[in-house]
Design a protein that fits this description.
Elements lengths: L1 H6 L3 E2 L1 H18 L7 H24 L12 H4 L2 H16 L3 H15 L4 E2 L4 H5 L4
Parallel strand pairs: 1-2
């Protein structure tokens, strides 16, 4: 097991966990026979989650130093509004697209980021677009 633990990355950039990996998961799912989520409830809940994630993202962008006081399971993710915004929006997109694998990926990355196994970089405009600003 030490071999596997040595190969798992410890720090994931926001471009990787929020854009690159979800695109690969979604493409893989479209090429395989993974069942889709139910249409009506998934799309409604997905739209609401996207709006909530964008709202939290706007608040996080206006006050980048903001943290949330929380102690408990998943505190590494729950204390950072930009991470919450990215994960909630990604889950909303998964539900809107009815993507089972993307929803599972989002839940898994949230659980992994909530532990000390993996550190998720907070998304920001300069890390997502690649400019130096």
């Amino acid at each position: 097991m030490d071999f596997i633990n040595d190969k798992i990355p410890r720090n994931l950039s926001s471009r990787l966990w929020l854009i690159t990996l979800p695109s690969a998961v979604f493409t893989f799912e479209r090429r395989s026979d993974v069942p889709k989520l139910p249409a009506t409830p998934s799309r409604i809940i997905g739209g609401l989650l996207i709006m909530a994630g964008v709202g939290v993202g706007i608040i996080a962008a206006q006050n980048p130093e903001t943290t949330i006081s929380y102690k408990g399971p998943g505190q590494a993710v729950a204390r950072k509004p930009a991470l919450i915004a990215g994960l909630v929006t990604l889950l909303g997109i998964a539900l809107l697209l009815r993507s089972t694998m993307l929803a599972l990926y989002t839940i898994a990355i949230a659980i992994a980021g909530g532990t000390d196994r993996v550190t998720l970089e907070e998304p920001s405009s300069h890390t997502l677009t690649g400019d130096g600003g």
